[in-house]
Amino acid sequence: MYDILIIGAGPAGSNLARLLAGDKSNQYKVGLVDKRRLDKPVDPLRQKACGGLLSPDAQKMLAKLDLNIPSGILENPQIFKVRTIDFDNSLERYYQRYYYNMDREKFDRYLFSLIPIEVEKHLGEVVSAIHINDNHWEIHMNQGKTILKAKFLVAADGANSFVRRTVLGEYAGPEKYISIQKWYPTSSTTPYYSGIFDSEITDYYSWTIQKGNRLILGTALPLSGPRAVTPKERLAKFDLLREKTADYLGISLETEVKTEGAFIERSTSVRQLRFASRLGLSTGKKLSLALLGEAAGATSPTSAEGFSYALDTSLKLYESLTHGLESAELRYELSCDSIRRNIFLKNLKSPAMYSKNIRKLVMKSGIGSLKDLNKRGQVQIGT
Question: pLDDT tens-digit profile of 220-254?
Fold first, then answer.
């Protein structure tokens, strides 16, 4: 029987496990489950599709946690500006931003490597069912071949969380998207991160990011709501994005190296966030569940950035657990008010990015842009 069982060994789950096991005053028995074999060579089929950019907010969280980034995790080029391309309004601007450009898989493995040996790790295991039995959680893995028991359950299994769906059922959660990325060889250097807005492609945004001699082209396509796209439409929209981007940037995007996909979620209201629950399943028994990072719906609604929230929620839950298991989920829920406020403010900012007409006014104004980089800050696309 575990005191605390964490499902998911991404940044949120690994950091929580590290903090709990590193604090000898807690004396919790901690287990960690992940479908990846993070102790073995990389399995390309189990890699997380991600742009791999650490935002300033994520960098602040690393500093707060006294964590650094080993040089072997970083990718070239490092990024200090964003190139915003608005195909809807035929506008372009550059904005100064500071990102760590990194290899996401190496970052995950680095955080995992920091977990003390006291944490019992179950790797290469897929959770297939969750039950309540005599006031404890039962986690069934690999179709019931392995069963783990825990007093306190932590969902750190990302967007479209299996734990969240199983325990909380259907509710008005974050809007669902699928992120599609394709990698292409490149011989040039693009020392910026492109944010591409085109309502013909998506109501969210698309991007380019360079990783060494590869260029990533990606987009986030809606899976729910009136603009939900079918699998056939996804391919057509990505091809249209590829053609437009290649033509505009004057590069070849014909030779595809690899394709990646991942679910992402967009919380357009703080009511869509779920950080904790004591409801359990339909049995009426009450057990503690905490949700971290993407599993809680905590990602930026403007950029889909999630590293900062993953690290922040894991720290908040750790601090709540230092006072004991009893009511830890309630303390954690209250501590997440700062995250709710942060996401609320980002949603207020969202129209300036995702309303075609408001974005046009903002970009034409030049507010916040690097005006000396491209014709006094404004380029008319096609001229």
Answer: 999 988 889 999 999 999 999 999 999 999 999 99
d(CA 321, CA 196): 42
pLDDT value of residue 225: 80
DSSP character string of 221-258: EESSSTT---HHHHHHHHHHHHHHHHHHHT----S--E
CATH superfamily of 2-365: FAD/NAD(P)-binding domain (3.50.50.60)
Q: Domain ranges for the chain, please list them.
A: 2-365
Cβ(213)–Cβ(103) under 8 Å? Answer: no
CB 74 within 8 A of CB 100: yes
Q: Which two tokens stand for residue 53?
A: 């950019």
CA atoms of 5 and 28, how far apart (whole Å): 10
Instruction: Check if the beta carbon of residue 170 is closer than 8 Å to that of residue 22.
Output: no
Q: Which of 333, 323, 318, 317 is nearest to 277 (CA)?
A: 333
Distance CA 155, CA 184 (A): 34
Single out the residue of 340, 326, 327 nearest to residue 275, CA to CA.
Answer: 340
Tens digits of residue pLDDT in 172-195: 689 999 999 999 999 888 889 999
Please list the ranges in the chain whose pLDDT falls under 70.
44-47, 170-172, 279-285, 371-383
Is the torsion defined by CA of 268, 162, 118, 135 positive or negative? positive
